[in-house]
Amino acid sequence: MRHAYDTETVRAAEQTLMRELPDGALMRRAAAGLAVACGDVLRRNGRVYGSRVLLLVGGGDNGGDTLYAGARLARRGAGVRALLAAPGKAHPGGLAELLAAGGAVIGTPDGFGPVDLVVDGITGIGGRGGLRPDAERLVREATAGRAPVVAVDLPSGVEADTGQVLGPAVRADVTVTFGTYKPGLLIDPAAGHAGALRLVDIGLGSVLPARPCLEALQYEDVAALLPVPGTESDKYRRGVVGVAAGSRQYPGAAVLAVSGALHGGAGAVRYAGPGADAVIARHPETLVHPGRPAEAGRVQAWVVGPGLGNTPEAVEAVADVLAADVPVLVDADGLRLMDTGAVRARDAATVLTPHAGEAAALLGVAREEVEAGRLAAVRELAARYDATVLLKGSTTLVAEPGGAPVRVNPTGTSWLATAGSGDVLSGLAGSLLAAGLAPRDAASVGAYLHGLAARRASAGAPVAARDVAARIPEVWRDVYA
Ligand SMILES: NC(=O)C1=CN([C@@H]2O[C@H](COP(=O)(O)OP(=O)(O)OC[C@H]3O[C@@H](n4cnc5c(N)ncnc54)[C@H](O)[C@@H]3O)[C@@H](O)[C@H]2O)[C@H](O)CC1
Ligand SMILES: [K+]
Fold it and tell me: Where is AMP bound in this sequence (predicted)?
C-alpha cells in the first residue's frame, strides 16, 4: 500500500523527528536520497561525472534540499549551476556547500550550454497557488531543452494536499519525495505532473500517525483481496450478482454491465430488465428475468443504473434494488433516479459510482468545482449519502463515511474515458461485492483491475469498453499469480 499524509501531518512529524536529530540532519538525509535519484537519471543517458545539472532553487527548505543534493553531484564531478528563484532567501548552508563543492550560481541559463538534468527545487509542501510569475519564467527558460526534470518532493506549483493545479506548474519526469507520499502526488491533475515517483526514507515512518489521509492499493494488496473460491464453493456460495441495467433505448449498457459482472468473481450473474434478450444473446451464461428486480430471485449484491433511461420501469428498478437487504452499487442513471432518503435509510452497504458530472449534480455544484477539488468532493458525497463513493476519473477515488483513508486508484488511464467503460466497471465492482468483498475493497479492487484491463486493451490506442471487459481475466490472472 502507498500511503499519503497531508502537509500539516508531515510538518508535525518532521518537528518530532527534528527534535531527536542534530541540526540539519533531516535535510541532509533528504538531499542524499535526492542526489542518488538524480545520479540514476543521469546514468540513463550517460554518467554523473562531466554532466551538466541545472538547479532551480526556491527560498524555502525545498531549495535547501536541492542545494545540498547539488553539492553532492558536484563532488562527483558534475557541473552544477543554480538559478535562484528568491536570491535573498536561498538556504545559506546549502548555498555555501554547493559553492564549496565547485558549483556556481548563475543569473540565467544562457551560456551554461546543453543541460543533462534540471532539478526543480522551487517549492515543496510550502508552495501555494501555482508558480509565481518569476518562478514560472525560470522554469520556462530552464526546461526549454529536452533535459529530464527531477522534481524535489513535489512538482513546484501543484497543491500538495488536494491534487489541484491552480496555475502554472512544473512537469517532471521523476519526483523524489521525502518521508511519505503526499496526496498531490497521487491525485490528478497534480499527479499527472509528477512523472515516476520515488520515495526517500528519511525516518519519518516511525513518527507518522497510523492512519494516512490517502492510500493507493498496490499489486500485492489487490492479490490479497481477490476472492478465490475454496474447494467447498459452488456457484451460489461464490455469490450471485444481480444486474438491473439497460433499456430498450440503451440495450448495450445491460450487455456491458453483465460482461463486467461475469468477470468479477461472483458465481453467477442474474439480470433483470428489458435488455434480457440482448444479454442472453451475448452472454448465454446469465440468468435472465425480463421483469423488475424485486421478482428476479435472490442475489448477494445488486448493480443498478447503467443505461436505465428515465422510464417508470427505470424508477421502479432503482427503488426495488434500494429496498433489497443486500449491498447495492448505483451507477449512471441510477444516480439520477435514486431517492436520497432511501439511500441513507439502507442497512446494507451502498456504493455510488459517479463521474465528475454526476457527482456535481448530486452535490448541486458545477462540474468544474468537482474536477478541481476531487478529494473534497468524494468525501462530501460519502458523508452526505452515508455511502461508499467511487468518483471516477484518471485517478479514481473511493471514500467511505467516517474518516477511513480515501483510496486512490493508481492504474487509471485516460483511454478509459470511453462510452460504456463505466458500465463494465459497475458490473465488475458489483460482482466483487457479491463475492463478499467489503464495499471499499470491492470498489477499489474493481477500479484497479478495470484500469489495468484498459491499459492492456489500449496499449496506447483508443479502446472500446467490450475490449476492457475481455481483458479482465488476463489481468486477474497476472495479479493473482
Ligand atoms: N523541515 C525539514 O527539515 C525538511 C524539509 N524538507 C523539505 O522542505 C520542504 C518544505 O519547506 P518549506 O520551507 O516549508 O517550504 P517550501 O520550500 O516548499 O516553499 C517555501 C518557499 O516557496 C515560496 N513559495 C511559496 N509558494 C510559491 C509559489 N506559488 N511560487 C513561487 N514560490 C513560492 C515561499 O515564498 C518560500 O520561499 C519540503 O517540501 C521538503 O522538500 C525535506 O523533507 C527534509 C526535511
Ligand atoms: K519542487
Answer: 392-396, 422
Using the mean position of ligand 2's atoms as its centre, give its distance from the Cα of residue 196 in Å: 14
CATH number for the domain harbouring residue 210: 3.40.50.10260
188 marked ligand binding residue: no
The per-residue pLDDT for range 173-193, each reduced to its tens digit, is: 999 999 999 999 999 999 999
Q: Which helix (H) or strand (E) holds 79?
A: strand 79-84
Shortest-distance atom of ligand 1 to CA 10:
43
234 is in an annotated binding site: no
User: How far does residue 470's CA lie from ligand 1's centre (Å)?
Assistant: 46
Nearest residue (CA) to ligand 1, atom 21: 60
- For residues 262 and 357, membership in a common domain is answered with yes
CA distance 24 to 79: 25
Q: Does 262 lie in the same domain as 129?
A: no
Of 185, 215, 245, at which residue does a domain stop? 215
Query: Does the pLDDT at position 480 exceed 90?
Result: no
Rounded Cα–Cα distance for residues 269 and 271 (Å): 6
Are 131 and 224 part of one and the same domain? no
> How far, in Å, from the CA of 154 to the mean position of ligand 2?
5
The CA radius of gyration of the chain, in Å to the nearest whole number, is 25
Asked whether residue 61 is marked as a ligand-binding residue, the answer is yes
Query: Which H or E run contains 431?
Result: helix 421-434
6 is in an annotated binding site: no
pLDDT in tens, 104-145: 999 988 888 899 999 999 999 999 999 999 999 999 999 999
> Cα(7) to centroid of ligand 1, in Å?
11
Q: Exposed, middle or buried by CB within 10 Å (0-12, 13-18, 19+), for 340? A: exposed
For strands 350-353 and 79-84, give the pairing: unpaired
Q: Give 237-286 pLDDT, tens digit per residue.
A: 789 999 999 999 999 999 999 999 999 989 999 999 999 999 999 999 99
For residue 105, the enclosing domain spans: 2-215
Q: How far apart are CA 19 and CA 35, in angstroms?
A: 25
Tens-digit pLDDT profile for residues 282-311: 999 999 999 999 999 999 999 999 999 999
Query: What residues flank ligand 1, with Cβ below 6 Å?
Result: 14, 18, 26-27, 30, 58-63, 65, 86, 89, 122-132, 135, 152-153, 178-179
- Which ligand lies nearest the alpha carbon of 160? 1
Q: Structural domain tally of the chain?
A: 2
Q: Which residues of 125-142 are buried (b: 16+ CB within 10 A; e: fewer)?
A: bbbeebbbeebbebbeeb
Q: Helices (DSSP H) in 200-302: which residue ranges?
A: 219-225, 251-262, 276-282
